[in-house]
Description:
By secondary structure, this protein is α+β, with helices and mostly antiparallel strands. Helices cover 37% and strands 18% of the residues.
Amino acid sequence: MESACNAPRSAAPDNPTAQNKRASLETKADPALLRPLRHPPQEIVDAFGADVALHKVSLCEVSSRFSDFTPLRDVTVGGVLWFLSDHAEEANKDSHGLIYADLHNRRRDITAQSVCAIARDVDGCLPFSDEVERAERAGFVGTTYTSHSHGKTRDEFGCEPAYKWRGTPGSLPFTDEQAAAYLKSQGKGYLTNVCVLNAGHPVHVEGKGHVFQVEHDPVPKLRSIDFFDEAVPLAEVGQDGWRAIYHTLATDDYGGPIYDTACANPARIHYMPAHRPGAPFDREIYGERLRPWRETWERIKPDVVVRREKARPASAAALNEAPADLKEIAHYLGFISPSIGRKQWLSILCAMNRETKGSPEGRALAHAWSAGDPAKYDSEDLDRVWDWCDPDCGATMGTIIYHAKQADNYKRFPRGSYTFSFASLKS
């Protein structure tokens, strides 16, 4: 009776926009690519020592934004450092990049088996020399490089808060110095050579209202990567545990969230060092020891466990508050653990999508139920699956009821009454 849906449908190959939405698939690695990654040059081994340079890691390589990924399993830290250096003269930012996680089958955060490095983007907050000095003091083996350098960059800020900050009549134009000082007050003091456009007067931008537009020098973009002494197993720490480890380590490094938080996603592509001809460019490799993470995990694990314990009751409460026309679906979801296997979870989501006609309320209910297992819950992954659900996959309300009946405390939906309590929700 169970209805099993396939993984999300692939988009048409002749549609680049659609390709960007599909899940990239695993492809076989070229032996010629693996060979130097597994056997780094002797100068790399001499520089870092055999224990570090020959330390094995597993990651993935992506040849372009829209392509499938190639697992690079059991390669070495020294080989990856060589790889980053060897490809540092690329002119196109998006030509290819690395994912510092071992993915299986599809390029999704949820398919990451382990993470071998912490990669952070620090844009505009530190000069390259300061970041390298910080990393060298820490002593962890890794690399820092500047990412693609753009031309003049534009920015904008709202009129009302800027006028309030200046404390003078709004009709007076902003000077370059005032704009730079205001941007500094908003945490953008790293912008240089700020020039106010439109003679210092605001312009109207649809959807944003009246704003000041400014031009400034390119923002210095930096990427830093540290390799772990052992891969972080996501089956052990969970998606939420990995993100907690990531943010704790990154905050320890920088004293605050000045890094791009999206880099915590394990399946994120980190493009290779690249720059246009003639553009400023820097790269440095350094370190003496691989970075530990288990001590940090043991320190923050109690907080992660507490958040997980709170997630189930919160999920149950959200199901209880479902709109009247979704009460029956919410009732049966209350008996299904969101920790159910991936194939069954996909089937249930497809059934919910079909029964609710893909409505925002149905999507919200899917999030509320899935969030009951924060170790697996990935909001972006759920949204992608929801958007890809095939109404002809065969999953129906009967699919949801089938899974609900597996619970020992299963009860049929109380027709004519919406007073059912999820207090006995099965964990």
